[in-house]
Amino acid sequence: MPTAVIYARISKDDRGDHLGVDRQERACRELAARRGLEVLDVLVDNDLSASNGKRRPAFERLVDILDNRVASAVLTYHCDRLYRRGADLERLVKMVESSGAQVHTVAAGDVDLSTASGRMVARMLGAASQHEVERLGERMKMKSDELAAKGRAPGGRPPFGYSWEWTREPTGEMRRRYAINPDEAAALKMMARRVLEGSSLLALARELDAAGIRTREGRPWHHSTVRASLVNPAVAGLRVHRREIAGPGEWTPILDRATWEEIRAVLADPARKRTRPARRYLLSGLVVNPNGEPLAGGPSKGAAGAAGRRSYATRWPASPSLSIGADDLEELIVEAVLQRLDDAVLPEPETPAPGAGGVVVALEAELAELAELRGAGAISLSEWMAARGPLQERLTAARATAGSTRRPKRSELFTTPGAARRAWPALDLAARREIITAVVETVTVMPATRGRWTPLEERVDVTWRV
User: Which of 270, 309, 349, 423 has the fewest other C-beta atoms within 10 Å?
Assistant: First the structure.
């Protein structure tokens, strides 16, 4: 009994239910029964296109079967299921010529690849299928351009901070829109605020995981996913088309445009990139001996080399050898710092005037207005070019400096008496170090007096910055 192999393929299977290829298989099995063919195997390429040149595993398996002359016929629903590209057709022609196999389709009849006329028809069918794909691509491209111009939300999974919402158009048509997800939007605003205050993306990722908040895919956070969520133009109400901002979207922004521009500039700042590990001791880098040599934080060595209490100590070959208990020293310095911030309002660190994010928005509006004037014929091309150049330069400069014009990190802790003490219990190690290093230059530790107990206050000298 003659044998055959069924080949089924569908380009798009969004739901993943294989219904398209299952229908093709049933039709091919009915054809096999009519032709008296025994089906040896069913090869399926589901959710794979035949027009983009990507590898199709089942098609490669079919070529191997024909090359080894395992089956005498190939059954498929239509020629365009089997091939669209000329290169794939020529491979089939070569295999059919060597094996003598026949190609039968449900919708287009037999495809005779053993004769010149049959191959010509096959190539014409392939060209027609390719033309259909290209026309479909053109229509989809035009539709995509139209939706982007209207500010419609793109397809796919909505960005973090939004969910899909179905609305009914005046025409009665149901359409999906971005709707703000309250919980995710609150998390996004918190992330934005913390980044502008100087928090690291890694610290934010850990904080989100500890709070039980997950990414849109339901996974733990990574510093890269925190960054991607914050710099996504959609959260500022902007529509992206072909990797460029096409204009405002029809949905409500979570972050205002000025804040979003500042966040982008902050995250693009090369100064944020660190190669050194994060500090693990509160006063690391601040504690020195009388010679100015640093005392490093670490566990002291007990008997037989066992790890003892936390301490700050000089490391070989520093001289003289010196150490001090970390817990007692940190408690003393923290209280001194908080007392200093309780008693006086310190001057706020000098930074450029805020608002560069707003400047970016204003300059973009000016450029858009200039383009409208040119489009309406109110100004000439030379006038448009002369005005556009300086505006574009100012816009580039504003974007570059937006990150440096943000509000100083946790400035209210320095300018409001008692604010630092009230906030201290809830601050993490990095935030506490920011406060201490802002007001303390060095902590000099003196050696203890030999033969008698020396109070800790007599061994420590603080050099203040302000």
Answer: 270
Report the C-alpha gap between 146 and 148 in whole angstroms: 5
Structure token pair of residue 371? 């383009």
Give the distance from CA 149 to its chain's centroid: 24
Closest by CA position to 2, among listed 50, 71, 52 = 71
pLDDT band at 236 (very low <50, low <70, confident <90, very high): very high
10 Å CB burial of residue 57 (0-12, 13-18, 19+) is: exposed
Would you state the structure tokens that stand for residue 230, as one six-digit string? 């914050």
The closest of 92, 105, 101 to 56, measured between CA atoms, is 92
Task: Please calculate the CA angle 31-34-37 and round it to the nearest 5 degrees.
Answer: 80
Cα pseudo-dihedral 276, 277, 280, 281, rounded to 10: -10
Residue 177 tokens read as: 């829109």
The residues, any chain, with a CB within 8 Å of residue 234's CB and separated by 6 or more, are 153, 158, 159, 161, 162, 178, 240, 249, 251
Q: Is 42 left (phi over 0), alpha (psi -120 to 50) or beta?
A: beta
Contact present, 446 and 460 (Cβ < 8 Å): yes
| Lookup result for tokens 């060209």 | 127
Q: What is the DSSP string of 192-229?
A: HHHHHHT--HHHHHHHHHHTT---TTS----HHHHHHH
Tell me what pLDDT residue 19 has: 65
Query: Terminal CA-to-CA distance of the chain, rounded, Å?
Result: 96
- 338: burial class by Cβ within 10 Å (0-12, 13-18, 19+)? middle
Which residue, 54, 64, 52, is CA-closest to 7?
Answer: 64
**Nearest of 147, 392, 168, 159 to residue 247 by alpha carbon:** 147
The Cα 332–Cα 325 span in angstroms is 11
Q: What is the pLDDT of residues 280-317, one digit of tens each?
A: 789 988 999 888 888 888 886 654 444 568 889 887 65
Separation CA 441–CA 152 (nearest Å): 54
Whether the model clears a pTM of 0.70, i.e. scores above it, the answer is no
Residue pLDDT, tens place only, 307-321: 568 889 887 655 557
**For 211-355, where are the alpha helices, taking DSSP H only?**
223-231, 257-268, 326-343
Q: Give the residue among 286, 305, 307 at the shortest CA–CA distance from 295.
A: 286
Rounded to 5, what percent of the chain is helix, strand, coil?
A: 50, 15, 35
Contacts of 414 (CB under 8 A, 6+ apart): 341, 345, 346, 348, 349, 408, 420, 435, 438, 439
